[in-house]
Amino acid sequence: MTVRVRRALVAVTAVALSAALAGPAGAAGPAAGQGGHEATRQAMKAAVEDGVPGVTATARDARGTWSATEGVGDVRTGEPRSARDRYRVGSITKTFVATVLLQLEAEGRLSLDDTVEKWLPGVVRGNGHDGSRITLRQLLNHTSGISNYTADEDFGRRYFLKDGFFEHRYDTLSPEDLVGIAMSHKPDFEPGTSWNYSNTNYVLAGLVIEKATGRPYGEEVRRRVIAPLDLDATSVPGTRVTVPRPSSRAYSKLSETTTGPTYDVTRLNPSLAYAAGEMISNSSDLNRFYTALFRGRLLPAKQLAEMTDTVPLDKDNAYGLGLQRTRLSCGVNVWGHGGGIHGSISDAVTTRDGRHSLAFNFNGDWSGDTAAVIEAEYCGSR
């Protein structure tokens, strides 16, 4: 994975909602052109001009649903991207996981003030980590201080860079393996004293769901979120290495630079991300999910208030429980999450009332400006 994708998966760039050749451009999906969205289309074109192979996006607002694509889904054949493309959503998975934990709290099956040690005895221990001093809430809002396993240098060489990736792309990693990598490092800070994005937090959250329900976290996501909302394009792949059709190819430089050869990285075992970022969806499903979440279809008011209780990151950004709030240049606040995994950079956001949502994907991980697409949709002239 490139530096850019590592930033997207690790979310080092907290000031953005994601880490984040030319072929038939401007291919439009259902209701294309409805309401304009010309600024958004131009931002998508700019991403392709910057080197992203292709972009697919869908927005929903009071005027209806608008979808558009730019660039290609397959650089070999020139096949364009589709508005219905399924793609790996990376850390957008975190909002689904946080939603399930909050549902379990609403049912009285756990408290977010429970310690990690209560649910996962002995798992968070070593090099100064102590699960008895960390709460489930601190996992979800990234104030636990737990080391981020994806920042481990050996892990990076093995799974993010070219030689390691092609040797290990089909490896199956258990969540315990991932936590073990984190435990080999010292904590980033004392629990509750600062903020740092750590994928390990959500690996642990997935394990807590399994412990509390007796079922894998993916099964609970399907039962509690995917099925009730009829998210037909959304899945928790586990160890499945393919992306269901319709879908495009995913591309990466697999290096620490943004230059050099481009590689097809579509096929990989997503167990390396587990509950921190393994899910697959499409733009329409993501819009439906975030709209339903903010309109109260998934959580009681108390839990939704907890989810949107944020830790400030800077003057324009704050992080809640599996959600980020960003204040855009025009004063609009959007809520959602970004995600990156090999060859795939995605964002999904909505307004607090759920009335205006946007989800999109780049099928390349080394270029393009996701923040510009969001700004264009909500602040550009449409």
Automatic annotation (TrEMBL):
Q: Which GO terms describe its molecular function?
A: hydrolase activity
Organism domain of life: Bacteria
Q: What is its EC number?
A: 3.-.-.-
Pfam name, any one? Beta-lactamase
Which portions of the sequence form the region Disordered?
237-256
Instruction: Please give the PANTHER family that the UniProt record associates with this protein.
Output: D-ALANYL-D-ALANINE CARBOXYPEPTIDASE, D-ALANYL-D-ALANINE-CARBOXYPEPTIDASE/ENDOPEPTIDASE AMPH
Q: What is this protein called?
A: Serine hydrolase domain-containing protein
Native species of this protein? Streptomyces bullii
What does UniProt list as this organism's lineage? Bacteria, Bacillati, Actinomycetota, Actinomycetes, Kitasatosporales
